[in-house]
Amino acid sequence: MSAVKEESSVSAAPRKRLSCTTYFDALMFCYSPVHQLQQYYRAGQLDTCSGKWSGLVDCLTLKTKRAAEVEEILEAREKKKSHIWSFRTPEEAASNWEEMFGHLDEE
User: Fold this and answer.
1) How far apart are CA 3 and CA 11, in angstroms?
2) What's the pLDDT at 15?
3) Nearest CA to 18 among 76, 64, 51?
4) DSSP character string of 37-83
5) Per-residue pLDDT at 24
6) Can you tell me whether residue 105 is helix, strand or coil?
7) Which superkingdom (predicted)?
8) Long-range contacts of 84-90 (CB under 8 A, 24+ apart)
């Protein structure tokens, strides 16, 4: 009987657990002197860490929802994200190349 339970648990797809640890770590690092001095050097002002707070609160809010609901929300967010590369046709790529680097061919 235990073999049947093991088989059914193995055949089920493993669910990815939502962990807020990374958001908490990012928030704690945001308040560290290293990060704050780095931001002051680069941007001329200290970081308010509001983006890190909103990420942590969002994660904790998702933890209160049902697993199926969380999966739907996360999938919708993934689909909404834009791709990091902009895809071009060969003609678009050639015209962009000429625009950016065409002056190098002239001598």
Assistant:
1) 12
2) 57
3) 64
4) HHHHHHHSS----HHHHHHHHHHHHHHTS-HHHHHHHHHHHHHHSPP
5) 97
6) coil
7) Eukaryota
8) none
pTM reported for the whole predicted model = 0.59
Cα–Cα distance, 44 to 37 (Å, whole number): 9
Q: Would you say residue 6 has pLDDT above 70? A: no
pLDDT digits (tens, 9 = 90+) for 27-79: 999 999 999 999 999 999 999 999 999 999 999 999 999 989 999 998 998 88
Residue 101 has pLDDT above 80, yes or no: yes
The residue behind tokens 């904790």 is 60
Contact in structure between 47 and 58 (CB atoms under 8 Å): no
